[in-house]
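Moderator note: this is an archived Q&A kept for reference. The question asked for a predicted structure of one protein chain; the sequence and the answer are reproduced below.
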Amino acid sequence: MTGHHGWGYGQEDGPSEWHKLYPIAQGDRQSPIDIVSSRAVYDPTLKPLVLAYESCMSLSISNNGHSVMVEFDDVDDRTVVHGGPLDGPYRLKQFHFHWGKKHSLGSEHTVDGKSFSSETGDEHASMNRLTDALYMVRFKGTKAQFNSFNPKCLLPVNLHYWTYPGSLTTPPLSESVTWIVLKEPITISEKQMEKFRSLLFTAEDDEKVRMVNNFRPPQPLKGRVVQASFKS
């Protein structure tokens, strides 16, 4: 067992078992998916993504026993994403990560069957600032102050994207998500990845279980169409 609340990423409580507690796991618009680039449909009506993250106010970093999460102050519209397939501005509330035990896997979405080492994930000062803070939240249930982090360092310069109707990738797996997956990956060093892999699924007094492979495999597309903001 790797988690709490009845789900995790171990053999007994991992993604293949989630449907027992959350029947929607077998629903018609579950995420993540494998994006087959040749089947994505270019939609010229899709708008460019606009990210207004300059005034963002990160508050804390925490380990919830499933991932590491950075939370933001989302009480106004200073930190928003709009454009794309969205019908209005969406405030940044939090971001979290998924990663694997080795460099060849870890992302939840795959592209043409290829996995990436992490989903969300550049070796520069801002990214180092994030990975250098992970030691403070090594154990499940730990939380630390983490101010003035700008998440733009986690995004590529090119914001071409794919979009499709999907779900949360962790329980309760609600089918209420409009996914926007950026085409261009960014890089993260093996040294930085090892800092993620030093985190634990477990609390300080429990048997140590490394936090790795905390991702859900791709789910069936079930007739959905992936749209692209760019021509192949």
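Archived answer notes: The domain at 20-228 is CATH 3.10.200.10 (Carbonic Anhydrase II).
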